[in-house]
Design brief:
It is a single chain. The protein is mainly alpha-helical. It has one helix and no strands. It has one helix at 2-34. The longest helix has 33 residues, at 2-34. The chain is rod-shaped.
């Protein structure tokens, strides 16, 4: 039971970190391509 909760927390945490990293990478590419901030 505890291992399942830890596993769920780990997946959620890694998913959040991956989402943030992907968003930042996409924004950096957008700025280099267009020289402006990406649309909201």
């Amino acid at each position: 039971m505890v291992k399942r909760l830890v596993w769920s927390g780990l997946l959620a945490g890694l998913g959040a970190v991956a989402s943030i990293a992907t968003t930042r990478a996409a924004a950096m590419i957008w700025r280099r391509m267009y020289g402006e901030d990406p649309p909201e």
